[in-house]
Write a structure and sequence with these properties.
The protein has 155 residues and is α+β, with helices and mostly antiparallel strands. It has a single domain, classed as 60s Ribosomal Protein L30, Chain: A (2-Layer Sandwich). Helices cover 30% and strands 26% of the residues. A 5-stranded mixed beta sheet has the order 1-2-5-3-4. Strand 1 and strand 2 form a beta hairpin. Helix 2 crosses helix 3. The longest helix is centred in the middle third of the chain and has 22 residues.
Amino acid sequence: MSRIEERLAELGLELPKPPTPIANFVPWQRAGQTVYLAGQVNEWNGTVPFVGKLGREFDIDAGRQAARLCALNLLACLKLACEGDLGRVRQCLRLGGFVNCEPDFEFAPAVVNGASDLIVALLGDAGRHARTAVGVASLPRRAAVEVDAIFLVEG
């Protein structure tokens, strides 16, 4: 079991099944030691528990939970990219967060912290990353949040 999976267990969390893409793309691509992960919505094993807009159906705390689900989906896909061994993960380089929200909702960065905080909790300093967090008019499956990522891996 990798350090990441041990830390997940300590936090009472587990990885979901990697989501199946709903369009013409793959969940990850690797170039050398860099893994590019496609955006993942706040899905849990096929269901999307947070459907709707931040600032209307959901508050910031619910948005953070949704963003954390996105991060768990990203990690499930990263595990595939690492041939089942999350011990090969060296660093999170970047997260991009997209928040389905009302036009005047100004707290997208606080929502995306749900993903950022989990990555840092799992990787420590190697989890600190560059990031974008923006509000958008809609997301696939009417999900509240979507996050993509770039990781550095070994081997």
